[in-house]
Write a structure and sequence with these properties.
With 741 residues, this protein is of the alpha+beta class. The chain is built from 19 helices and 29 strands.
Length: 741
Amino acid sequence: MNTNEIREAFLEFFKSKDHNIVSSSSLVPNNDDTLLFTNAGMVQFKDVFLGQEKLKFSRATTSQKCIRAGGKHNDLENVGYTLRHHTFFEMLGNFSFGDYFKEEAIVFAWEFLTDVLKLDKDRLWITVYKDDDEAKEIWINKIGIDPDRIAKLGDKDNFWSMADTGPCGPCSEIFFDHGDKYEGTPPGEDGDEGDRFVEIWNLVFMQFNRDTDGVLHDLPKPSVDTGMGLERIAAVMQGVGSNYETDIFSNLIEESEKVLGSAGDVSHKVIADHLRSSCFLISDDVFPSNEGRGYVLRRILRRAIRHGYKIGADKPFMYKLVKTFVNAMGNAYPQLKNDEERIKKLIKNEETQFLQTLDKGIQILDSTLAEGNKEIISGDLAFKLHDTFGFPFDLTADIAREKGIDIDEKGFKKNMESQQQMSKASSSFVSKIPTAEDLKETDFIGYEHMSSDSNVIAIWNKNEKVELANEPQEYFIALNQTSIYAESGGQVGDRGWFKSKNAEGSILDCKKSGKVFMHLIKLDKGSLKIDDKIEVNVNKEKREKTEAHHSATHLVHAALKRVLGDHVKQKGSLVDEHKLRFDFSHDESLSDEEISKIEDLVNEEILKNSAVSTKIMDLEDAKNSGAESLFGEKYEDQVRVLSIGEDDFSLELCGGTHISRTGDLGIFIITSQSSVASGIRRIEALSGPRAQEYLSNFKNQTIQLQKLLNAPAEEIEDKVSKLLKENKSLKKGVKPPKRHN
């Protein structure tokens, strides 16, 4: 069976067992800030296992995209040197959310392996947790496994936990015996690290909840989380000892050899693996950068580029392999087909950029080693290669490994820390918003009202909670309800003013601390204390200009998708009374024609004077209706859905404030575009009164140019071009004065 057939067989098998087939989630987790990347099948169901989210089904099966590079789980340095380490892999999994438990999970796994895949039962070995007699009995009595092929292991190998506290439980692993041509002993015995016995499936039984004292309590509804590496089971089914010999890798390696030549076995494996992870990351809107997820992608790409350089590549080559990869994986992951050209461009750009410094960096490394200590790459040299030539540390470590020498990682980290300290010292200090623990959620009534009668429930003076504000200075206050919008979703906080029986002042800004609105005020006179009743008023002019730009942001997002394609995704925004700024995924500068089309689409909607409406919906219903959500944003079960224009020209989840009709925008103009990072563009634009001011200024400037050039508006361009040419000719004709001694 090829890899695609195995994936399909797995999903269809569990579908026949009443499991819902759930699509793979993104490689960027949208519900876990602690994870750099999705690294297991259960990640998208984490909140379900924690009891924080309920699904409409209790059984699920997935083939989940996973990355293990960077962060706690990092296989990067081993890729290419072992038979089974990868930066990207697919995790086949079946899940029970309080439905079936150990017996069904074990029976399902055994049935799939032996009845569907037809694996030899005598080549399957089992491990169970040392105290899990129940699982062992199921394997022996229900399945019929020889007790001699079952090993009991401890906490390190066979007990799983999500964190120090919370859901946890024993697990049972299934191993496959590749035969005596490989070294290794059965699981649990000395020497079990060899390549003969390979774990192919892990069944996790979540049956306990661990409290803060470490005590285990039975969960009322135990659950099951299983994971089987698709690449590993493909190696088993195709009768090969290495994942790199399976169909999904062999095709890529063969294509890499065509492009670069056949020499360099390890390098071709690295290139094939790293191409897979790079393509999937870019498709999930991760772009090469110098921080976070983008830097992990850059490390992966540059490690592959260096391996290509090592076997003779002095020009971009990886992008040429993308089509082969997409042809192999595009049916299972159709988004890859849509993103193929974008992936090629981004990879080629990164190759071009790094190849400009790679050769020079290698020369400096070689010459430094030749002149000095040939046994170790110093931390200073590793840092210089990183800082000046863009060598990620693991790339330099890879070179050290090939040369059989050490690398001073501590010295490198010391240099990095010094640089970070200098950077921190030079950056300006930004005060933090006070934390508002134990306070009730602020009731926001600003969608309907521009003023509110509120009660003061907390006051802070420079992050310190106080009972009284009586100095003419800035404070933070929290209210039980407010008409002031707190900064979120790219929209800045409202400004305004307040008045009480004993005080009055300005509201300078409003931000959130959890679900509490923190009003930054300037007390102009009097005093304010907790429980005081105050009247809060929104600066109406600022709010209306801001919400005009916010509504225009939604229109421009929809227009960008129509003009550039569905790959466009919002990557950030800033909306205030002065302008709108919108960052989106796209890998090249917009042409004048594209900008005109985008402006025309938005202005057409404005001229229609269509209604702008909001509706409160269940999150799942909203998504099913086609409403777009901002990836990575956390939403409540109930969400506001914003519809703008005829036939839902724009339909998105949004908690911001907006105009009531598109005609309120008056006109829309894009004023600039720029590059924010690799694969991310930024446009700035104006609407409403600000756009009218811009056009008025532009008109006045045009009139002044007409007067200066003595030409009508339509001839200004030709006239200026002519003057520039004449000026250039005159400069060429002027000879420098002779010098006299």
